[in-house]
Amino acid sequence: MKKVNLIAVMMLVVLSFTGVAQAQLKIGYVNSDRILSEFEEAREAQSKLDSEARKLQEQYQGMLGKLDSLQREYERQKMMMSDTRKRSKEQEISSLQESIQKFQVEKLGPEGEIYKKQNELVAPIIEKIKRVIEKVGKAEKYDYIFDTVAGNILYAEPALDLTDKVLYELKRTK
Fold it and tell me: What is the DSSP-derived secondary structure letter of residue 39?
């Protein structure tokens, strides 16, 4: 990734030294963090996602609490239990451990429910933001628009910040 950034910067430097390119090159930037924090649809999606994540986390914590309780109870009483009762309790504990692992994978894992929900909620918003950035870029005849959050810009003229224009267009296109 750094290699790609370095190549892009080198290309811009080379282009800026040619008289024709310098007169025609127009660069702008946006702050995607600010767009996501100020764009109402993005805030609503994040709020829904946070709510879903809290519910899943509460379920997970409840399962862990139940497992801890079962294990403590088993440890306290195992000396007085029959072998059959011990095996039954051990099986119950083992079954709950497996359920917790399955829950982690299916709900919280990298391909789990929470990440699918995130994609479902956020992907359309990201696509909308991309379309608006492209619209602003074409309308204002920008050659490049960078995202300051990606860390690719070492210096930027504040007048080139297109964040307000993108937010304005996003608000207009409901």
Answer: -
What is the number of other CB atoms lying within 10 angstroms of the CB of residue 70? 17
Distance of CA 109 to the CA centre of its chain: 14
pLDDT (tens digit, 9 = 90+) per residue, 22-54? Answer: 557 888 889 999 999 999 999 999 999 999 999
| 118-135: burial string, b at 16+ Cβ within 10 Å, e else | beebbeebeebbeebbee
Q: Looking at the domain covering 2-40+122-172, what would its CATH class be? A: alpha beta
Relative orientation angle of helices 40-77 and 113-139, to the nearest 10 degrees: 160
Alpha helix locations (H) across the chain?
2-16, 19-24, 32-38, 40-77, 83-103, 113-139, 163-172
